[in-house]
Design a protein that fits this description.
The protein is α+β, with helices and mostly antiparallel strands. The chain has 4 domains: about 1-225, 2-Layer Sandwich (Heat Shock Protein 90), CATH 3.30.565; about 235-390, 2-Layer Sandwich (Ribosomal Protein S5, domain 2), CATH 3.30.230; about 405-540 and about 600-640, Rossmann fold (3-Layer(aba) Sandwich); about 545-580, no CATH class. The chain is built from 21 helices and 22 strands. Helix 4 (about 40-60) runs antiparallel to helix 6 and helix 9 (about 290-310) packs parallel to helix 11.
């Protein structure tokens, strides 16, 4: 601890204006904002917050910050306040202006390029907070440091004046950044509380002991939550697997703090069939994994494979693979890298080649040591792995049989598929339709050149409760996989996708919603890239046809019906038809309201938060009934059920 205190003292002394390195200016940010923050939609809007909070988290990583407060302000501004060291307020030796102005107006300016100031950092590109400034109508920085409070204000990246001392500090240190996104740049300007809360909960798991407080000040009744998890990533795994049944009582939690790349891993096996990996580099969620995940998987396969050599002879008849070893595994991998190489500014994937071998070696040795000291844990895991291997081999035999029958090969399309004539996937779309009756109307109402129709008989298998063997044994899923063309699971190949729009078209009732949920569960678990790359859509058929005299209008929900009816003067001359299902609509009506690209409404399915999505699918579709019952009881009041029963 003495060495650590001395190191922190040196970092404190080294952190001054001369620590801030300038690489280039800000000019391009407002011209091409998406290059720097990913997009100018709702994701880009929230990305501004991540960039500012990352700076405060970097202070926590360096050991100088223990509490970060984030407030959503009236007018949809954001204020982020930390109790770190505070941005240096001296005059920058090279730029000859205040250091606050350098940090806020110079692209690639920050303390992360100086290894004395920060050992590791999420914001290594150094473009974050200056981009936020450039893309904000107004931004105010307030610094508490060296016994005084210093403030500077900016408008669209331009200083409104020099930094000014506004008074003495109360003895505390830290930085507050308040900003209001530029509504001429962003297509969305309303912050979503739950999106912010999910990210800050995630940060609290990763930063053991760090406290993050989120407050929504837009309403009179302020909503507020504080996130702090002393158990770190071990509590993260518990949170993810909240609705699953674990195979042993405590997650495996391995910490390697002293190596070249500090590493922390938590892993837990459950009785399910899916694998779930959540990976982070310097607290940045690497959604697409990278070399740290590769090293983890290699070590896991090698170590468990080694222990599997001691399995009873009867069990060795099934050949274990890496997929078997990862079935039912939930893992969180968090690593600190002083010079990470991310793919793009959005930092979705780690590219440092040396990290794979480091994690493989360091984590592998630690995991092997753990299993030697905990033989009961490895025995439970090996039993699970063996059962997965047996099921996989059975599924493989079934798959081969299916191929011989031309079920899973692209040459043998399902008989019920009414394919389109175009062979260009970019212009083709497939409607997955509930039942033969609706399928008949859809086939007659479609545009044959680019619209294909696949009717499904009844409800498909709930894949959350089924092994791959059972999934592949289901005729309706075989037809679906065959029609899409990509294969599933480890055999999935996006380049073989036959339709760039896959549209789920079901009745606007409870059964239709259930079918939608079953299909989305299947896509999420076995064809996840289809959702990630924006290929899955929900059709929006109308609920009502309203006729006033000779004029007809389609209405899509109860609120729209009530609003239109309130505007109709001659209510005696109104006829309202409630559609019971798609099969009741004529082909012309179905085309006009739901299928014609020039008039229809589609909902695109996206994943904002993979952890939350995984939890929801697990809770709603999994084996555990009690969490599902509580969820329904808590949310039933939000649903307006207008079914005629």
């Amino acid at each position: 601890m003495a060495e650590e205190s001395e190191e922190m003292k040196k970092a404190e002394e080294a952190y001054s204006g001369s620590s801030i390195t300038v690489l280039e200016g800000l000019e391009a940010v407002r011209v091409r904002p998406a290059m720097y923050i990913g997009s100018t939609d709702i994701r880009g809007l929230h990305h501004l917050v991540w960039e500012v909070v990352d700076n405060s988290v970097d202070e926590a990583l360096a050991g100088f910050c223990s509490h970060i407060e984030i407030s959503i302000l009236p007018g949809n501004g954001i204020r982020v306040t930390d109790n770190g060291r505070g941005i240096p307020t001296d005059i920058h030796p090279k730029e000859h202006i205040g250091t606050i102005e350098v940090v806020m107006t110079k692209l690639h300016a920050g303390g992360k390029f100086d290894s004395n100031s920060y050992k590791v950092s999420a914001g290594l590109h150094g473009v974050g907070v200056s981009c936020v400034n450039a893309l904000s109508n107004k931004l105010i920085v307030t610094v508490r440091r060296d016994g005084k409070v210093v403030k500077q204000e900016f408008a669209r990246g331009v200083p409104c004046g020099p930094q000014v001392e506004v008074g003495p500090s109360d003895g505390t240190t830290g930085t507050s950044v308040e900003f209001y996104p530029d509504d001429s740049i962003f297509t969305e300007t309303v912050y979503v509380y739950d999106t912010l809360a999910t990210r800050f909960r995630e940060l609290a798991f990763l930063m053991s002991g760090l406290r993050l407080t989120l407050t929504d000040e837009r309403d009179e009744e302020k909503r507020s939550e504080t996130f702090c998890y002393p158990g770190g990533v071990s509590e993260f795994v518990r949170y993810v697997d909240e609705h699953r049944t674990p195979l042993f009582n405590e997650p495996i939690h391995l910490v390697l703090p002293d190596g070249q790349y500090p590493l922390e891993v938590a892993m837990w096996y459950n009785d399910g069939y899916q694998e779930n990996f959540f990976s982070f580099v310097n607290n940045v969620n690497t959604y697409d994994g990278g070399t740290h995940v590769t090293g983890f998987k290699t070590a896991l396969t090698r170590v468990i494979g080694k222990f599997a050599q001691d399995m009873p002879k009867g069990k060795k008849e099934a050949q274990i693979t890496a997929d078997d070893i990862r079935e039912g595994l939930t893992a969180v991998i968090a690593i600190k890298v002083s010079q990470p190489q991310f793919e793009g500014q959005t930092k979705r994937k780690l590219g440092n080649s040396e990290i794979a071998s480091y994690v493989n070696s360091a984590f592998g040795a630690k995991l092997e040591e753990f299993f030697q000291e905990n033989p009961a844990a490895i025995k439970v895991i090996l039993d699970k792995v063996y059962n997965a291997a047996v099921a996989r081999e059975a599924a493989h035999r079934a798959r081969n049989l299916a191929r011989r029958k031309n079920i899973l090969e692209s040459g043998g399309l399902p008989g019920k598929l009414a394919d389109c004539s175009s062979r260009d996937p970019k212009e083709c779309e497939m409607f997955i339709v509930e039942g033969d009756s609706a399928g008949g109307s859809a086939k007659m109402g479609r545009s044959r050149e680019f619209q294909a129709i696949l009717p499904l008989r009844g409800k498909i298998l709930n894949v959350e409760k089924a092994s791959l063997h059972r999934v592949l044994d289901t005729e309706e899923i075989q037809n679906l996989v065959n029609a899409i063309g990509t294969g599933i699971g480890t055999e999935f190949k996006i380049e073989k996708l036959r339709y760039h729009k896959i549209i789920i078209m079901t009745d606007a009732d409870v059964d239709g919603s259930h079918i939608q949920t079953l299909l989305l569960t299947f896509f999420f678990r076995y064809m996840r890239p289809l959702i990630d790359e924006g290929h899955i859509f929900l059709a929006m058929p109308p609920l009502y046809k309203l006729k006033v005299g000779q004029k007809e209008r389609y209405l899509f929900d109860e609120n729209e019906k009530d609003k239109v009816m309130a505007e109709v003067e001659d209510k005696k001359n109104v006829t309202i038809t409630r559609f019971k299902g798609l099969g009741e609509m004529s082909p012309e009506q179905l085309n006009e309201t739901t299928m014609d690209p020039s008039r229809r409404f589609l909902k695109q399915c996206t994943i904002e938060d993979s952890v939350l999505a995984d939890q929801i699918f697990s809770m709603l579709m999994g084996e555990d009934v009690e969490p599902r019952r509580k969820f329904i009881e808590s949310n039933a009041y939000k649903v307006l059920n207008d079914l005629d029963i």
